[in-house]
């Protein structure tokens, strides 16, 4: 009888363990959250998220950021328990952010089969480019009589109170470095750039940090000229407003990139990153954003392809140097240029 009792107790214990097992198993991920710029979400990533949900059953939620710097501060504030799974940022900020090993994970390349096709310059240990673009000059031909042919044209008196120019944190100091190069300086000697930006000030209506606001101002005629990537030209086209663009040398090249945040949803987040890198999604994202695709077989809009800079005019800057100096540059910019 005792043996029978023990057998029953063992059976009950085993049954209880089997019943408890499903509760201990990890529940399937039903959604992920991405942090990105509002223009990127509305331009293409909302639809990419919807397609990802159709393909995987995983919903994509979005949190918007005005700049990569703002986005990084938000992520750092939730380091202990981040609620964002994938972060869209610039390659420059990604290089700075990757040193936070608690917050950001190396990309699991074995889980990203689509990454193998991406051009080598758009891949790093902790980030991968989702599209590329240059900083150029976009203008309204109905408001600017003579075509713009070079960076130096922006300093002409005819552009008094007509320009929109990025702040130092927008595009990570590329305007400063470009201005320095035009005046005999370099990334390691930006004094000529600061002096040039001071001389440019009478022509500037706004030093902008929000792409959305700046592109809307250009479309509405509050500005005539915008220093911006090709997406600003697409914004004019979408609004039925005439626009032109030039990418004069030196033409700073940049990537917007994806980073994997250290959350319990990292496997699902990696699936989303890989989904964004497929040729089909690269076509969709590049054309929706008005940018250049990082997949070699993908294509952008013809009008955007027409304004991409010639290879010999493209310049890339050392992100380590930028990250080491951007805080000081920003402080000096606010003190000497915008005040």
TrEMBL record:
Entry-linked InterPro entries: SBP, TAT_signal
One cellular-component annotation, GO: outer membrane-bounded periplasmic space
Superkingdom field: Bacteria
Keywords: Signal
A Pfam family reported for this protein in Swiss-Prot or TrEMBL: SBP_bac_8
SUPFAM superfamilies registered for this protein in UniProt: Periplasmic binding protein-like II
One GO MF term attached to the UniProt entry: thiamine pyrophosphate binding
Signal peptide (from-to): 1-25
GO biological process: thiamine transport
UniProt-recorded name of the protein: Extracellular solute-binding protein
